[in-house]
Structures are given as C-alpha cells and as structure tokens.
Amino acid sequence: MATPAPSPTGSRLFGSLFELRRDSLGVLLSGMRECGDVVRFVAGPPGLRLTLHGVFSAEGAQRVLATDAANFRKDSKTYVEVRASFGDGLFTSQDDVYRRQRRLIQPLFTRRRVDQYADAMREEVTTLLRRWRDRTDRVVDLRDESTRLTLRVVARILFGADVEEAVGTMRHSFPIISGSVARRTVSPITLPRSWDRRYVTAHRRVHELCDRIIAERAADGRDEGDDLLGLLARVRDETGDRLAASEVRDQVLIFLLAGHETTATALTFALHLMAHHRDVQARARDEVDRVLGGRPPGAADLDRLTYTTWVLKEAMRLYPPVPSIVRRAVDETEIGGYRIPAGSDVFVSPWVTHRHPAYWPDPERFDPERFRPEEEAGRPRYAWFPFGRGPRACIGEHFSMLEAVQALAVVLQEFELEGVDSDVSLDQGMTLHATSPVRCRLSPR
C-alpha cells in the first residue's frame, strides 16, 4: 500500500508557511534534496492549512501532465484566481470549453502563421536597440528592457496600430493584478478582492481597454485586419462556430499576459548569462555573424542559429519562466510509491526538475552544450519542460522561441555585453521574475 509522501522539516504549528513566503524557490529545491521526488508541503496553522504535493522527477511530471492528465485538472486555487482576473481563456479553460477554444485558435499558432510575425518582432527589437544607442548611460536593466520589448511585440501583433495605449495600460496594471493573484494563491485566508483597491482599479482598466478596442475595431471594420485580434474576431471552424466577443477578450488577456511575461523572463536571463559568460557570448556572436553575414535575422534563420537556441534553452533551464505548474487530483493515485489523495493540489516544477542531478550533472552550471542533440537524446523528455508538455502544452512555444532567438541575434550583432549585477533576487508569482535589477553594460560593436 502506498504511503503518504514525506514532508520537509518545518514548524510544528505553521509547517513551511514562512519559508515558502520568504523563499519559495529555495524551499522547493531543498524539499527535493531532503525528501526525494515526491514531497508533501504543509503551510499554515491547523484548520487553515494548505497541503501541496510536489512531484519532481521527469517520470512524475510526465504522469501529471500527459499520461494521467485526465486525473490532474486545472481546478486548484491558482486557476480560480487566474480565471477571476483574466477570464476563461485557453490557459484556464477545461473540458469541452477548452477543446473548442483549442480547435478554433490552434490554426492561428501554426509555425507558418507565426513566422509571418517575424518582421514585426525584429522591428520592435531594432527600435529598442536604437534607443540603447542613443543613451549616454551605457548600463541598462535587462529586466525592464526585456519586459518593454516583449509587451510591445505582443501588443503590436494583437492590436496593430493600438500599441501605445495598450502598452502603457498593461505595463502599469499587469504587475498589480499578477501580484494579487500570486498572493491570494498561497494565502490560507482569502479576503474579498474588492478590498484591494489597487487591484480593482488595475483590473477595471485592463478589461475596459480590451473591450473598447474590440468594440471599436468591430464598429469600423478593422477586425478584418491580419493582426491577431482581427484573426480571433473572424476565426471559424468547419461548422461555422466562432468566438463570442467576451471569449475574444479572454483570449486577448491571456495572450497579453503569457505572451510577454514568459518571453521577457527567458530573454532577460539569456542576456544576463551571456553577459557573465563572455566565452558563450563570443561563440553565439560568431554563429550570428556567420549565419546572417550582417543582415537582419528572419524566421527561416531560426533552425540555423543552433548554438544561440541552445543558449536560450539553457537559460530557460536555469530560469524557467513558469517555475511551477499546478493541478488538482480528481481520484486518489500513486506516484513514485507515495499516495496522492483525491482532491490534492499537485504541482510539477520546472525550477526543481531542471536542477535534478539525475538529469543534469553539476546542475547550477550554465552550459549550452547540454542541448546538443546527442545530449538531449540521453535525457527523459520531461527533464526539460519550460513550456509545459502533454495535451495542455503552451500553444505559443514557437512564437516565444522565434521572438527570443531573433532578439538575441540582433543584440549580438550590435553590442557586446558585460555583466554588472551578479546576484539577482527572484520571486515565484504567476511567472518567475527578478525582484532586483539585472543590469549589464553595453559596448557598441
């Protein structure tokens, strides 16, 4: 008979509550090292306790995300909070609603369709670098600059000409909303959202902006455009089914959130790591110069920039944009010899699995060579899953990879990078993000 999963040493009264609030990423990693591949985390006093089961092996992640995906649903408190803030879009929907949305939206994210956005992505990177060249101070914060870039890219591809207003509203409002979601997810006591006036204001502004843009576009016929909002507004399946205006808004909100925060994190740390590993930077630059010969990168170059792609993948191994993926078990099951009770919140963690010594020797070392084809062939498929895997894998994986690799290539063409901040403070909210500056010094080539 399966036994309960072990728990890390913590307070008898509060469990791991205070440690999780202070350093959740460190607690997850130490929990794996202390207890193994299945760990039961308890947080809060008796009567108000949260219990989470962490599953850290590649085999366990495959069980949760793919093999037994039907038993692990998006019913956890995390998804309740995300739905309340961002609607029931492709990221949060389930069952028939999800299958319908995926059927309608998947054609908009084929590789061929996404490749058509490459020019717009590159133009935004070029605009960013023009601003860098005009600076008198050559030290930039990669966290802020990457967020600005990726938000402009996704807003432009969604809204076309409505970029400026959208970017301003989202830059101000999204951190407030995301912070509230993250806090409420781990709090034993959930207060009414209406008590948080900053959240209420930010939430209203974001929804009003999206609703107004959608309504104006429909009124003046601009929903016939080729930007993503126009495509969402007129997408049909073979039966003639289409998304309602409220569903379009929910998809837009999720794309804005997921489409900029995750790529910004990947890009921030790929640049940060190259700035502190000049040999890796030099090799990636040599590849960019050889493959592109001084011309701008395009979608067709993605498969040829192999080492640059390895750099990005290794950055996402060490700094996965979504450090934990939460589900809720429908029926009691067993993973790794331990019992997972029905109704349990279960999470897999790229942050931990990407550092598992069974798959990654010297796991804290930055080494893009880990992604040579022969190296990848020797690892379990779920040893690396920054975009999730299984039937709910991220629909925007190619979008993110294309945007980030192009950005890295253009930066390497224009600048040499020297790291300024060695130690970066991190926080696990809806996504992984730096809570301290991630600065580097630019030297024009």
UniProtKB/TrEMBL annotation:
InterPro entries the record matches: Cyt_P450 (IPR001128), Cyt_P450_CS (IPR017972), Cyt_P450_E_grp-I (IPR002401), Cyt_P450_sf (IPR036396), Cytochrome_P450_Monoox (IPR050196)
PROSITE patterns membership: CYTOCHROME_P450
Entries under CDD domains matching the protein: CYP132-like (cd20620)
Keyword check for Nucleotide-binding: no
Keywords: Heme, Iron, Metal-binding, Monooxygenase, Oxidoreductase
Pfam family, one: p450
PANTHER family on file: BIFUNCTIONAL ALBAFLAVENONE MONOOXYGENASE_TERPENE SYNTHASE, CYTOCHROME P450 FAMILY 4
The protein's name in its UniProt record: Cytochrome P450
Taxon lineage: Bacteria, Bacillati, Actinomycetota, Actinomycetes, Pseudonocardiales
